[in-house]
Each structure stands twice: as C-alpha cells, then as structure tokens.
From TrEMBL, chains A, B:
This is TetR family transcriptional regulator. The lineage of its organism: Bacteria, Bacillati, Bacillota, Bacilli, Bacillales. Residues 4-64 form the HTH tetR-type domain. PROSITE patterns: HTH_TETR_2. Residues 27-46 bind DNA. One of its GO terms (molecular function) is DNA binding. It comes from Priestia endophytica.
Length: 188, 188
DNA sequence: GTCTATAAGTAGATAGAC
DNA sequence: GTCTATCTACTTATAGAC
C-alpha cells in the first residue's frame, strides 16, 4: 500500500474513504488517522485543502479503474465474454465485505455535481475515459463506431447503477443479473 | 408544495436536499431554513433526529417515484415504448437545471450503505418496490417471469447509473442514449 | 406545537515552532 | 517536511419558557 512518500499514502487512503463515505462524510482527521500520515503535512502537500485532495483522489480512482478494466477486457475473444468477465470481477468485490478498493466514483460524483464545479469536471473526465475504453473494445469486436459509443454509455450506466444496488444489497448479485442480460444488449 | 402541516413541509424539503447534497452534505439548519418550518418543532415531529427524518424522506421519495413510474409505464402499448417513455420523462428533468424533484435515492443509498443499517434497508425496500413494478409491467407484455425479474434489475441499474452520468454532464443525454438501446435489451 | 438559547462536539483551516 | 496548538464556524441535539 505504501508507495514511500506521504502524499501518496494520504491520497490512497482518501480515495478509499471518499468512495465509501462520500466527500462530506469523510473528515480530514479521519484521513490522517487511518493513513497514519503526519497530520501537519496535509496542508503542505495539498495547500488547497480538502477539495484538492478530493480532485487528486478522483483522478487516482479513475486511472486505477481504467487500468483494471483494460486488463479485464483484453482477456477474451468476444465482446460479450469480455464485458461479462469485467462485470463478474466487479461483482466479486461486492461479495466480500472488504473495502471496495478502487471502484466507483458515482457517490462523490452525485454529491458534488451541483456544488463543486471543479470536482464535477474531474468526474466527467473519468467517465469519458472509461467510455472511450469501452468504445475502443467494442470497435475491436466489429461494432460500428456510433453504436459502440452509445453502448459504452449504456454499459457505463449499467455498471454504476448495479454497483449502487450491490452496495444496498450487500451482494454482487445485481451485477451478475446485468452480466446475464449483456448478450441481448450486445448484438450486432 | 405546502401540504398544510409542518411535518410534511419538513419532509418534502428534506427529500429535495438529501437527494441533491446527500445525508452528510445536508444540515438540519438548512432544512429548517429552506422549508421555512419553525425550528423548534423539528425534534417534536422527529424525536430521533436526523436519521428519522432521512428514513421518512426516503420512504416519501420511494413512493413518489413509484407513482410517476406507474403512470409513465401505463400509457403505451409495448414494453419498449413504455420504458422509453419513462426514461424520456426522467431525461427531461435533468435538462432543466431546476431541482431534481423526487428522483433518485442512489446518492443517499451509497452514502449510508456501510454505516447506517436502518437507512440501507429502507433504500433496499424502495428499490425492490420499483423492480416489482417493472417486473409487473414486463409480464403484462408477455415476458416470462424469471426474465422479467432480471430485466427489472437491469433497468433499475440503467436508470440509477444514467442519472449519475446525467448529473455529471448536466444534461439528459445519457438517459436518451439508454432509451435508444432499450429495444435491443427488451427482445423476447 | 412552537420558540429561543445554548450545550457539546467536530469540521476545515491556520500559525508558528522545530 | 513535520508537529502542536488553536481559531472560527458549523453540526446535532437538548432544556425550558411560552
């Protein structure tokens, strides 16, 4: 977990807490406490305070999710199998009651959309990156460009929504229900 | 807006604020201020404080969404048209920058899932009600029971997720992208 | 049923020593 | 780069008058 410098430790802990408890639900003191980072150094590394930590944390989450998605999607031979594999991996995370590491910016995105423009834009950018990856993957499996783009939005929605249901049900089954219906959606 | 008694005014205002700013992002003072309700009466009507207000507010949102969904879904002659109509109505809400009235418990559901069991259960119950309605509608259009139940979960996920994207983009287009792909999903 | 005042705690943020 | 102490503002919640 520790990457050596204090900044990364703070950011990693903040990512974890923000995505589970949200922006307002997570205190700076809690981040300090859980990370074990020295309290005094927080405003040294992030002079703009909580908002700056949140922005950097969201960028980190975005990249993390992008990487694991890219990995999942490259391991299969059809679009259906690829996305089903991706969804199944996410479903597994919600079964264990362990921390939901690196999944989901939906909570903070909803929370801040109407109040913090800068955070809204970072979230928007993360979603665009994921959709670009999905689009690219669908094109590789011979989906026409426009349809691929639209399906990417739909898949993105599906994953965000099913993740909320999974949290609410404390189980990955909503994601598995989604995986099961993917073949109907992904017809040429 | 005012339904006569103070309790309902508080609840209505709380619903609005909770779904836009979340639980931790909304202060009791803000609810009082915005509702114009007398401050002293808050703990008279809700002796258990903020958590009780949240639980009742979520129930209210759940019923409100259920009713408008029932209305939307009963106006068309095919499953595809019915759900497309429903999604289109939601999309329109996100275009105007007005308050998102009565839509979406996803934010508060994510926020509280890991910390307040009682709130998590109320959200779970609301989702189950909506899915039951979707299932019923799909069965009416000759979908087999098991498939109808699974599609209901998928549609629920789709709506929750696309609503987050709509907020993040300040536009209803993600919901319209979903509507456009519904015919592929809803094949017998 | 409503109102005022206030308790008790915690939030984010800052200043200055080291 | 880190630590400690502290400031101000705000939070939920309560007590007691009306």
């Amino acid at each position: 977990m520790k990457k050596g410098n204090t900044r990364d430790v703070i950011l990693h802990t903040a990512s974890e807490l923000f995505q589970r408890q949200g922006y307002h639900g997570t205190g700076l003191n809690q981040i300090i406490e859980k990370s074990g980072a020295p309290k005094g150094s927080l405003y040294y590394h992030f002079p703009n305070g909580k908002e700056e930590i949140a922005i950097e944390a969201i960028k980190l989450m975005g990249q993390h999710i992008l990487e694991s998605a890219r990995e999942d999607l490259s391991e299969k031979d059809t679009a259906i199998e690829a996305f089903q594999h991706h969804v199944a991996k996410i479903a597994d995370v919600f079964d264990g009651k362990a921390c939901v590491d690196g999944l989901q910016i939906g909570l903070i995105a909803s929370e801040m959309a109407s109040s913090h423009e800068s955070i809204r834009l970072v979230c928007k950018s993360a979603y665009e990156d994921w959709q670009a990856l999905y689009t690219e993957c669908l094109q590789r499996f011979d989906f026409e460009t426009e349809r691929a783009k639209e399906l990417a939005v739909v898949i993105n929605s599906l994953l965000e929504g099913a993740s909320i249901l999974a949290q609410t049900n404390e189980s990955g089954w909503p994601l598995r229900a989604v995986a099961k219906q993917l073949p109907a959606l992904l017809v040429h």
